[in-house]
Amino acid sequence: MRRRDAAISPVERSHDAHEVDSLHRGLEIMRGFRPGESTLSCSEIALRMGLRRATTQRLLDTLVAHQLLRQIPGTERYQPDLASLVLGHAYLTSAMIVRLARPAMQSLSAQLGTCVVLTMRERLHMLCLDLCGQRNPAIPYQLMSVGASLPMTLTAAGRAWLWTQSGAAQGEVIQRAKAEGGEEGARSIPGVYRAFQEMEEWGYCINAGEWLRDFTSIATAVTLQQGMTYALSCDLGGVGVQSRLSASEVGTALLATASQIRDAARRIGQ
Fold first, then answer.
1. Phi and psi for 71 in degrees, rounded to 5?
2. What is the pLDDT of residues 151-178, one digit of tens each?
3. 200: pLDDT confidence band, cut at 50, 70 and 90?
4. Cα separations (Å) of 263 from 87, 100, 104, 187, 225?
5. Are 156 and 116 in contact, with CB atoms under 8 Å apart?
6. Start-to-end C-alpha separation, the chain
């Protein structure tokens, strides 16, 4: 039904010999701030990175000096600072996909009366690039906002994106989810294969309560001419959509919106 990419870049690139080691470590520290973890201590970061505390402290001091992190006064805990926001904002304002997708997303949100979300892969997660419409109040803000990181194998968006990838890439993600996600990661895999079947049959997949209890979402993939793939999803939980529209109606509307985004990108050579 949809073209599968022959290959993708590795889910997490190995540490290249030409990389500057301290830069690599500093960037990994910045990646370590996860949703729901607004602060981390030097000891926690050192443990996650497998570094000596003294080395970690020097890296933190450098990040603080450049306003990427700030130390909370009177503690050894750190949180992202203004410069990290500048970097994120620079990406969002220059990301063509966000500008192309927003009108179609707004139209779909108005049509369905729900939240429509655009995400892209970031390692083993899906990163929220934009959302339009009424956000489900039952979902914590840090899990449904621009910049939020959603688990790939547990969400409809992640499963829709993964379906577009090569068999080798799918296998790598699934193995890493099992290895790094513990029991929860292993439990998510049957749902991944079920989503693949739905994508083959319908072009979209459904996730009912597998990620968050009482939360249902439908997702499809949006692959552009230049090869970049995104996921487009609708939140069906908590806003009364299920009582008005069937999953097939929502899925059909979602597919039409994905087609509109691809057409808009094609017109400008994306």
1. -90, 130
2. 999 999 999 999 999 999 999 999 999 9
3. very high
4. 29, 10, 11, 37, 10
5. no
6. 21
Q: Is the Cβ–Cβ distance between 191 and 152 less than 8 Å?
A: no
Band of residue 4 on the pLDDT scale cut at 50, 70, 90: low
Long-range contacts, 256-259 (Cβ 8 Å, 24+): 257/104, 257/105, 257/107, 257/108, 257/116, 257/232, 258/220, 258/221, 258/222, 258/232
SS3 content of the chain, % helix, strand, coil (to 5): 50, 15, 35
For 37, phi then psi, to 5°, come to: -120, 80
Q: What is the DSSP letter of 115?
A: -
pTM metric for this prediction: 0.81
For 248, the 3-state DSSP assignment is helix
Q: d(Cα 255, Cα 1) in Å, to the nearest integer?
A: 12
The gap from C-alpha 117 to its chain's centroid, in whole angstroms, comes to 10
